[in-house]
Amino acid sequence: MNTFDALSLFSGGLDSILASKLMQSLGHKVLGLHFVSPFFGKPEQVPEWEREYGIPITTIDVGQEFVDLMAAFPPHGFGKVLNPCVDCKILMLRRAKKLLPVYEASYIISGEVLGQRPMSQRADTLNIIRNDADVREVLLRPLSAGLLPVTPMEESGLIDRAKLRSLVGRGRKGQYALAKELGVTKIPTQAGGCRLGERESARRYWPILRTFPKPLAPYFDLANVGRQLWRREADTVTGHWMVMGRDYRDNQKLLKLVSPEQYVFELKSFPGPSAVGVPIPGLNWTDEILAEAAACLASFSPKARMHGDAVEVSIERHGAERIISVRPDRPHGFEDNLTWPQTRAQQKIWERTLAEI
Ligand code: SF4
């Protein structure tokens, strides 16, 4: 196992690149930690980043830990959408701290810039993150270090404080100048790529968080694909969730993500979508509900609809297939998930209820 001086939270965004490169330029051996979950992370880009920026990077999967955090309601709350940025940073820093001895590293680098983001990069929030993650002794924020209290690494002489930066605010001029100085020519686009800050994704995730007693990370991978249909009876969600492909690519993705206890629906004799039914512990998919789901699936196939008669749908689970005949139909039952305003309203109620407990 290679050893390093520092572990750097490496999202692939410009700040994480600059913070890592700055410490490398001071002669420190830096390993990038790229955190992945169904909500963020681009592990497929790691080899390219390594080549382009000359930073070795390892991928760390925090999917289930992150889902558990979301399901229990993040202690520091959500941002504008479903993004628990403060708790997210705390979680990543805690994990990085645990990895320090593994790589014989002595400190952690984070590319946060003071005042850059309203929720997670205010001075008081930076302190909360550092204290709650218990990384006071080992955390360095090289891009804004000159404006932050002196760290033990600077006090001990391990790091020359004069070489660190004092970037502040939302402007990017300082970052671009530093990029030039460090020879970073490929500047990534500013968008962070975290789905938790997108309303469309939040709509997809919300019913899973509120319906499953113990949501699993792979459910959110499914939520990232295709149409999300939840069954309703008299406007109440019954908990039956079906994910349906919108095109060939979605169908292929779904079939890769499916696990044996889930139902796979496919039309036997007509082109059309594939769908996955996700059972919730303790809630049955009765024959009636399976038929409803199959009819709904068939209704998304123009050729099956034009057929004008019943069509065959294959339902596979645990490797066993059964075939049922249904008329393409969507009279009630499986419907699109909530709109963003409905989701936000429910999120606020959840927040208030927890605050009162
Ligand atoms: S935007 Fe997403 S990845 Fe970034 S800190 Fe917030 S929750 Fe975490």
Automatic annotation (TrEMBL):
Database matches in Gene3D superfamilies: HUPs
Highest taxon listed in the record's lineage: Bacteria
InterPro entries assigned to the protein according to its UniProt record, in alphabetical order: Rossmann-like_a/b/a_fold, ThiI_AANH
Coiled coil: none
Residue ranges of every copy of the Thil AANH domain listed in the record: 5-143
Keyword annotations of the record: ATP-binding, Nucleotide-binding
Keyword Nucleotide-binding: yes
Name of protein: Thil AANH domain-containing protein
